[in-house]
Specification:
The complex is a heterotrimer of chains A (295), B (316) and C (273).
Chain A: H1 5-12, H2 17-40, H3 42-56, H4 80-111, H5 116-129, H6 133-148, H7 153-177, H8 181-189, H9 194-223, H10 226-229, H11 249-257, H12 262-290
Helix pairs in contact in A: 1-2, 3-12, 4-5, 4-7, 4-9, 4-11, 5-7, 6-7, 7-9, 8-9, 9-12, 11-12
Chain B: H1 18-52, H2 55-58, E1 62-63, E2 68-69, H3 72-101, H4 107-122, H5 125-134, H6 136-151, H7 166-190, H8 194-202, H9 207-236, H10 239-244, H11 262-269, H12 276-310
Antiparallel strand pairs in B: 1-2
Chain C: H1 2-11, H2 14-17, E1 25-36, E2 39-50, E3 54-58, H3 65-72, E4 82-90, E5 93-94, H4 102-107, E6 109-112, H5 123-133, H6 139-152, H7 156-159, H8 172-184, E7 190-194, H9 202-215, E8 220-224, H10 228-234, E9 237-242, E10 245-251, H11 252-257, H12 262-268
Parallel strand pairs in C: 3-8, 3-9, 6-7, 7-8
Antiparallel strand pairs in C: 1-2, 1-4, 4-5, 9-10
Classes of the chains: A mainly alpha (295), B mainly alpha (316), C alpha/beta (273).
Chain lengths: 295, 316, 273
C-alpha cells in the first residue's frame, strides 16, 4: 500500500504555488514518459506476432509435419525431419544434463548448503548461464565433431546440454530451497538419514518446481540455433541414427531465411510459427502443470 | 526401576551414503565443466595462437583463402553493437522495471506487461532475426539513408546506408537484452523496503521525486549489475546478429554499413571451415569466451555486493 | 578427551547436578559450552535431568534454552559453523562419543517443534514414518503402532475414520498432537519439546499439557516454554536460563515459590525486561 502522491502535492499548492506546479507537471510528464516507453516495447512483440501469423499461417498445413524440406527453388514439402531432429536433440540434451543438474542441486542445497564448494558451484553455474550459446556449439564441435569426423545429432545434443545444465541446476536448487525447512527438521529429528530425508520428504515436495524448471530449460533449448548450427548441421533427409547430420527447426529457419526464393522464406515463417508455438506451449504447459500446487 | 541401556539397543547400522558421493561428483563436474570448455577450445586454438599471436587482435584482414586471420573488425563490431544495444535498451528496460515494480497501473496491467516481457525473453533468437530481416532492414535502409544524407558529417553516421548494418543488429540486440535489464532492475527495485517510499511520500515528495531521489540511487548498484550482465549477453548473442549485421569482414566506422561480430563470425564460418581456419575460429571463440566471462564475473560480483548491501542474503 | 570429562565431572558440585538424590539421572550436561560461529551461546552448563519426569526450560528469548535442547539430539549440527565444548551424557554415555551414530541417537529421542510440522501426506504415513525409515514395513506392526501412538495423544477417536487423509487438513492442535504421536511412534525414551504450544489456542494448549503429564509415565520429557504458567503446570523440575547460562535448577514448586537467585525471582515475578 503506497499513498497516492498526487493528493499530497495539492495539499502543498497553497504554500508554494510556483514550484509545486512545476513539480506536478514534471511528475505527470515522467509518468507519461515511463508508460509510453513501456508501451513502446509492445510494438516489436505485436509486430512479430502479427507477421508470424500473417506470413506463417498460409503454408501451415498438416503435411508440413510429415514431409521433407523442399530443395531450393522447389515448392511443396514441409519440415517433419526438422521437428523430429529438434525433439531428438533436446531429448539427448535433457538426458545428459538433467541427472547432473539435479544431483548437483541436491548436493549444494541438501548435503552441503554452506560449504565453499557449494558457493563455487553456484558461482560457476551463474557464469555458465552467461556463456554464449555459440560457445557451447564451438565446444561440442571440438569435443564431438572433430573426434567423430561427422556432424551429428549427438554433437547437437551435447551442445544443448551445456546450455541447459546451469539452468536446471539453479532452478532445481530454487525448488529444493522452496521446501520448508520444518520438514527437514521433522525428518532429521525422527532419526532419518540424509538420504531418507531427501528421497522421502524433500524431493517429492520439490518435484513440481523442479519439473517446471526443467521444462523451461527444454523450451529455451528447443529454440536455440547457434549450438546446433555447426554441430548437427542440417539435413534434407530423415535421420536414421544420432550419428549423422540432423535437421532442426531453428537451423531450417536460418538457412531458408537467407535463400532468394519466396517459397522457402515463407516456409521459414511457417517453421518460426511452429517453433514459437512449441516454445510458448511448453512454457504455458509448465506453468499450468507445476506452478504452485496446493494440497 | 532400571533403564535399558540407552544407545546399544538401536537397530541402525550406518552405511556409507553413496548417494552423497554421487551428488558430490555431479557438483564437482559442474565446476570442472567450465574449465573443460575453456581447455578444449584453448587446445584447438593453440596452433592459431602460435601462428598469429597478439597480431590476431590487431589485424583487420580475414581471408581464409590466404590463411590471413585478424579479428579487429569483429572486436569493434561486437563492442559497438553491444554498447549501442545497451544504450537503447537501458531507458526502455528501466521504464518497464519501474512500471512493473511501482504502482502506476492496476495489477492486471502489470501482470500483462510481465507476461509480455517473458515472451520477449522466450522468443528464439533466430525468429528475431527473421523478423528483423522483414521489418528492421527496410526501416534502417530508408531512415538510415535520410539520416546519413542530412547528418552524415557526424562521426559514425556517414553513408551510404545499408539495411544490413551495425545499427540494425544493435536494434535487435536491444530488444533481446531488454528482458535481462528489466528482470534484474525490477528485482533491485522490489527489494527496497516500502518504508523508504512511505518516508519520501510523507515528506511531501511526488512520485517521481521519490523514484529519482530515493529509489533509483538505492537500486543503482542493481541497475549497474543489470547493465553489465546485459552487455555480456549482447556480446554473446549470435543468430539474430548474424542474420542482420551484413557479415562484412572489413573494418568500417559507420553505423549504417555492414559489419560483423565475433559470434556472428563463428556462426557463419564454422560449418565450412577447414585446417587453420578452424584453429583461427577457435581462437576467436576463446576471445569471445574470455570477454563474456570477464563481463559476467564483474556483473555477478556487483550483483552480489548489491544483495549483501540490501541484506537479501539468499545469494550466498 | 574422555579423561578430561571425567575430571571435570568430579569438580561439579553435586547439588547443582541434581536437585534431589531420589531421582535417577538420565541426561547429564557437563561443563557444556556452545558456539555459533564466533558467538558463544551457552556458558558452562552443568546439571542432570532425571528419568521419567518432566523438566522444563524457561528463560527470556535468546537465553539459550532451545539451543541446549537441540543439542540433546544433536540437531544443532545441521547448522553451519557450530562447535561445542564439554559433554552431554545420556544414560551414562557421551552422545558426542565417536561410537555414537547420530542417526541412531535421534531415533532414540523424539522431538516436537515449535510449529507443528506434519509431512504433507496422510495421517497414517506421518505416524509410521519413523518405522518406515527403520525399514519396518510389516502391515500389522504399522497398524498397531498407529493406533497405539494416536491413542497416547488422544487423537485416535478424532481421526480413526480418516487415517488416510492428508495431515495438513487437521486443526492446529490436532497437527501438533499428530507430531507428538509421530515422535513417540518408534518408542523413544526421551521426548524433547521446543515450545510445543506457542502457536496454539488455549484449548489446544490445555489438551497438550494434559498429554505431557500423561506421557511422563513412559518418557523422559524436556520442554522449552515461554509460558511460566505452563512450566508450573506440567513440569516436575524447572531450569531457568539467562544469557546462555543456567541460573537455577530445582523442583518446579521451589523455583516458583522460593527461588534462590535474584535473577530467577525477577523473571518469575515479571520484573524482567
Amino acid at each position: 500500500m503506497r499513498p497516492n502522491s498526487n493528493t499530497a502535492v495539492h495539499f502543498f499548492l497553497n504554500h508554494e504555488k510556483k514550484t509545486s506546479l512545476f513539480r506536478l507537471w514534471s511528475n505527470q510528464f515522467l509518468t507519461v514518459l515511463c508508460v509510453l516507453f513501456s508501451l513502446f516495447t509492445l510494438v516489436p512483440l505485436f509486430s512479430l506476432l502479427y507477421l508470424l501469423i500473417k506470413k506463417g499461417l498460409p503454408l501451415l498445413h498438416f503435411s508440413v509435419f510429415t514431409k521433407l524440406p523442399p530443395p531450393p527453388g522447389l515448392h511443396g514439402g514441409g519440415f517433419g525431419n526438422a521437428i523430429v531432429g529438434t525433439i531428438t536433440m533436446v531429448g539427448i540434451a535433457t538426458l545428459l544434463s538433467a541427472p547432473l543438474g539435479i544431483l548437483g542441486a541436491i548436493y549444494i542445497s541438501e548435503y552441503a548448503p554452506h560449504s565453499s564448494l557449494t558457493a563455487t558451484v553456484r558461482f560457476i553455474a551463474k557464469l555458465l548461464t552467461g556463456i554464449p550459446s555459440i560457445i557451447c556449439g564451438a565446444f561440442a564441435f571440438a569435443l564431438v565433431v572433430l573426434h567423430t569426423g561427422e556432424f551429428s545429432a549427438l554433437a547437437g545434443g551435447v551442445a544443448l546440454s551445456i546450455l541447459m545444465l546451469p539452468t536446471i541446476l539453479l532452478t532445481s536448487e530454487q525448488a529444493l530451497i522452496g521446501v520448508p525447512s520444518s520438514y527437514r527438521d521433522a525428518s532429521y529429528g525422527l532419526g532419518a538419514t540424509p538420504f531418507q530425508t531427501i528421497w522421502c520428504i524433500v524431493l517429492p515436495e520439490a518435484l513440481p518446481a523442479m519439473m517446471m524448471g526443467m521444462m523451461l530449460a527444454v523450451a529455451r533449448a528447443a529454440g536455440e540455433t547457434a549450438p546446433v548450427l555447426f554441430t548437427a548441421l542440417f539435413s534434407q533427409q530423415w535421420a536414421s541414427s544420432i550419428m549423422e547430420p540432423t535437421a532442426s527447426l531453428s537451423v531450417l529457419i536460418y538457412n531458408f531465411s537467407a535463400l532468394p526464393y519466396h517459397y522457402q522464406v515463407q516456409m521459414a515463417w511457417t517453421a518460426s510459427l511452429v517453433l514459437v508455438a512449441m516454445v510458448t506451449g511448453i512454457n504455458i504447459l509448465a506453468q499450468l502443470l507445476f506452478r504452485r500446487k496446493f494440497q | 526401576m532400571s533403564v535399558p541401556a540407552f544407545i546399544p539397543q538401536n537397530r541402525y547400522r550406518p552405511r556409507r551414503d553413496y548417494f552423497r558421493s554421487l551428488c558430490w561428483i555431479a557438483a564437482v563436474m559442474i565446476i570442472l565443466l567450465l574449465g573443460f570448455i575453456i581447455d578444449e577450445i584453448f587446445t584447438r586454438a593453440l596452433p592459431a595462437i602460435h601462428h598469429y599471436g597478439w597480431h590476431f587482435l590487431t589485424s583487420s584482414e580475414w581471408r581464409p583463402n590466404r590463411d590471413l586471420y585478424g579479428v579487429l573488425p569483429m572486436l569493434f563490431g561486437t563492442a559497438v553493437s553491444s554498447f549501442l544495444a545497451l544504450l537503447l535498451a537501458l531507458p526502455l528496460g528501466l521504464a518497464v522495471a519501474l512500471f512493473l515494480s511501482e504502482n502506476f497501473l492496476p495489477r492486471p496491467m502489470r501482470q500483462l506487461m510481465r507476461m509480455i516481457v517473458e515472451m520477449l525473453a522466450a522468443t528464439p533468437s533466430v525468429v528475431y532475426g527473421l523478423w528483423g530481416i522483414f521489418t528492421l532492414v527496410p526501416l534502417v535502409q530508408h531512415y538510415g539513408g535520410i539520416v546519413a544524407h542530412h547528418w552524415g558529417w557526424i562521426p559514425f553516421l556517414h553513408g551510404p546506408a545499408y539495411g544490413n548494418s551495425l545499427f540494425t543488429a544493435s536494434l535487435v540486440l536491444a530488444l533481446m537484452v531488454l528482458p535481462t535489464i528489466t528482470a534484474i532492475s525490477r528485482a533491485a527495485l522490489v527489494a527496497i523496503p516500502d518504508t523508504f517510499r512511505e518516508g519520501a511520500y510523507a515528506l511531501g515528495a511526488t512520485r517521481w521525486e521519490t523514484i529519482i531521489r530515493v529509489l533509483l540511487p538505492y537500486a543503482a548498484p542493481g541497475i549497474v549489475a543489470a547493465s553489465i550482465l546485459a552487455f555480456g549477453r549482447a556480446m554473446g548473442e549470435t543468430m539474430a546478429v548474424a542474420m542482420l549485421i551484413g557479415n562484412s569482414q572489413r573494418l568500417t566506422l559507420s553505423l549504417f554499413s555492414p559489419s560483423n561480430t565475433l559470434s556472428a563470425l563463428l556462426a557463419n564460418q564454422f560449418s565450412e571451415a577447414e585446417g587453420l581456419q578452424i584453429n583461427a575460429l577457435m581462437y576467436a571463440a576463446l576471445i569471445l569466451i574470455m570477454l563474456t566471462l570477464g563481463t559476467n564475473i564483474i556483473g555477478e560480483l556487483v550483483l552480489r555486493r548489491t544483495q549483501k548491501a540490501l541484506g537479501g542474503g539468499h545469494c550466498l | 578427551m574422555n579423561q578430561q570429562i571425567k575430571n571435570s565431572t568430579e569438580q561439579v558440585p553435586s547439588e547443582v547436578m541434581s536437585p534431589s538424590s531420589d531421582m535417577e539421572t538420565f541426561i547429564k550436561v557437563i561443563n557444556f559450552n556452545f558456539f555459533y560461529g564466533k558467538k558463544q551461546t551457552l556458558f558452562n552448563i552443568n546439571f542432570a535431568i532425571p528419568t521419567k519426569h518432566v523438566t522444563s526450560f524457561i528463560g527470556p528469548s535468546g537465553s539459550g534454552k532451545s539451543t541446549l535442547l537441540r543439542n540433546f539430539n544433536r540437531m544443532n549440527e545441521l547448522l553451519p559453523g557450530v562447535r561445542h565444548e564439554g559433554d552431554i551424557a545420556i544414560d551414562g554415555k557421551s552422545i558426542f562419543d565417536a561410537s555414537i551414530e547420530i542417526i541412531a541417537l535421534r531415533r532414540r529421542i523424539g522431538m516436537v517443534f515449535q510449529k507443528s510440522n506434519p509431512f504433507p501426506r496422510s495421517i497414517y504415513e506421518n505416524v509410521v514414518f519413523p518405522l518406515r525409515i527403520m525399514g519396518r514395513n510389516k502391515r500389522s506392526l504399522l497398524n498397531e503402532t498407529v493406533e497405539r501412538s494416536l491413542r497416547s495423544v488422544a487423537l485416535w477417536d478424532e481421526v480413526k475414520d480418516r487415517l488416510h487423509e492428508n495431515a495438513l487438513g487437521l486443526s492446529g492442535g490436532q497437527m501438533q498432537r499428530l507430531c507428538i504421536a509421530r515422535a513417540i511412534s518408534s518408542q523413544p525414551e526421551i521426548l524433547l519439546m521446543d515450545e510445543p504450544c506457542s502457536a496454539l489456542d488455549p484449548i489446544a494448549t490445555a489438551k497438550i499439557e494434559e498429554l505431557i503429564v500423561e506421557l511422563k509415565k513412559e518418557f523422559t520429557i524436556v520442554i522449552v516454554t515461554h509460558s511460566m504458567q505452563q512450566a508450573s503446570r506440567v513440569s516436575d523440575l524447572t531450569a531457568f536460563f539467562n544469557f546462555g547460562k543456567l541460573i537455577e535448577f530445582d523442583h518446579t514448586h521451589r523455583i516458583f515459590t522460593a527461588p534462590i537467585e535474584k535473577q530467577t525471582e525477577d523473571y518469575i515475578t515479571g520484573r524482567f525486561g
